[in-house]
Design brief:
The structure is a homodimer of 300-residue chains. Chain A has 300 residues and is of the alpha/beta class. Chain A is built from twelve helices and 13 strands. Chain A has a nine-stranded mixed sheet, with helices on both faces. In chain A, β6 (79-85) and β7 form a beta hairpin. In chain A, α7 crosses α8. The first copy, chain A, starts with a strand and ends with a helix. The A-B interface holds A 87-89, 182-186, 189, 203, 205-207, 209, 216-221, 223-225, 227, 254, 257-258, 260-261, 295, 297-300 and B 87-89, 182-186, 189, 203, 205-207, 209, 216-221, 223-225, 227, 254, 257-258, 260-261, 295, 297-300.
């Protein structure tokens, strides 16, 4: 089934306790698309400046990612983020941020994209996310990400969005902020009452939780010794999840749980190197092999 | 098989964000014993003062816990701890601590306890823990807990102990401290090199990790909305784990994984009320029911 993502495409400069990288390929829609492309073709809507190298676009295209919705603004500069990870490789500080062309991002879906069956609204203002929904025609499944900024500054708009989407994906601190509840299980159930039919709370190195009317579960992260750069883990998770759902063409409980697991596993590869470097070196077969180990790990 | 625990028996005064309790039954050996007693008889070695109510001892005895190693010091006062949980219900502050008779605790195993096959050395100084081992005759499995205090102040003694035990159980921050490594997977492997044949790293609400030469895995905590008091969760986990192993009489990889799961589930009940209050209201059948739900949660 067709899968659409709307989000950021960016340059990231990243400092970890042991290494630094300058202006490498990043952005929520980038990680999402590449992760999803292991399972299904992807339609990407985003915006970049004239400084965005053709090789990056070519890389995405080579993965069956349709970049006809990636707008290039003449004379514009691509969204830039510079961040630093603390020694625990979990907390991070933003050192610099230049929204550039992303600051005026008003996503416009190409006609061919309007009828996408699965839609992922990567992190963005709820107003922007809503504007995408208004251009879409009868999607079967809409999932959105959000963040602390929008919870704080566009609360009403976010509440309106939550009534329009099927699934919400967010991280643990954001779920606590949104619900003012420190218990993630309670928080998950509270968010369900705000509209979405399912909620996924990402816990970074601790895995992810799933909530729907009839189900509550948590799946652990895949334990990896090689954590080089956690950037993009959450978007890769979402990409693996949505890509798998699109490939299966349904979102039954059993399919959703498998999708959660694939999301966790794609993310476990993403963090093993900077940018898309690790994902570029693996195949679907590597994901399936890790899935086999993951299933074995969880069975007793 | 026979199971021995040596550790603290205490009074706890506890403040959570919503409730407080004064001088309730606590202590590592208390939680351990009660948790283990769902699976196997337990031999307890500890020390209390004359102020320790007979009803507490009677409670333990009613669970097939042999308290003949629980020394009562005439005129002495029982170990007392007062603590306060922060709103996240994970971090806590010690407000008051009175070691009392526990300060002079020199565990002496009753003759009948020396030949115990499974031994758990609850948190205590590595010197005290070693003194227990010196009184034991040919145990089949020795597992110890430790804490930041001993890692910092009795490092050499702890290193000597690690060479004498089969398994080490500790929490995540302690594993990081011991290895100076922020990645728990790397930390687990480093600790294996210090002596133990297996290492368990407890992650509180995020579950527990297991490491041996051939295996690395993580099992999530059982998601519960009702977190009333996390005190004793770690010791209950260890009790469930060791109790199950003792009941099975082996520590094969498959048995160990089942034991990890039972440990996680007993702990998930412990946190649902103060002291032993929740554990006192459940049966082995409730544990098995939760195990069924846990297995289902982890299968897809």
């Amino acid at each position: 089934m067709s899968l659409l993502v709307v989000g950021s495409v960016a340059f990231d400069s990243i400092q970890t306790p042991t290494q630094t990288r300058e202006r490498i390929l990043g952005g929520s829609a980038t990680y999402f698309s590449y992760a999803a492309s292991f399972f299904a073709p992807v339609r990407l809507v985003g915006v970049v400046g004239e400084d965005f190298p053709a090789e990056h676009t070519a890389l995405l295209k080579s993965r069956n990612i349709d970049t006809s919705g990636l707008h290039v603004i003449p004379g514009g500069k691509t969204f830039f983020w510079k961040g630093k990870y603390l020694p625990n490789m979990n907390d991070r500080e933003t050192l610099e941020i230049e929204l550039n062309v992303f600051g005026d991002f008003r996503p416009k879906l190409p006609d061919a994209f309007r009828r996408s069956e699965f839609i992922f609204l990567a992190n963005g203002s709820p107003v922007t996310q809503m504007s995408v929904l208004e251009q879409a025609t009868g999607p079967r499944l809409v999932v959105a990400d959000t963040m602390d900024l929008w919870i704080r500054t566009q609360h009403g708009e976010l509440m309106a969005l939550l009534k329009r989407i099927d699934g919400l994906v967010m991280n643990d601190s954001e779920a606590k902020l949104l619900t003012d509840d420190e218990n993630l299980v309670t928080a998950g159930h509270k968010i369900l009452k705000l509209g979405p039919r399912f909620v996924v709370i990402k816990k970074g190195e601790h895995g992810a939780m799933f909530f729907s009317e009839h189900e509550t579960y948590v799946l652990p992260a895949f334990p990896t010794e090689r954590v080089i750069d956690p950037t993009g883990a959450g978007d890769s998770f979402a990409g693996g999840l949505m890509g798998y759902l699109a490939s299966r063409g349904n979102f039954e409980p059993q399919t959703l749980k498998e999708a959660m697991a694939y999301g966790i596993l794609v993310a476990s590869f993403t963090v093993e190197d900077f940018s898309l470097d690790r994902l570029r070196r693996i195949t679907k077969g590597d994901l399936d092999l890790r899935m086999e180990r993951y299933r074995k790990m969880l069975s007793f």
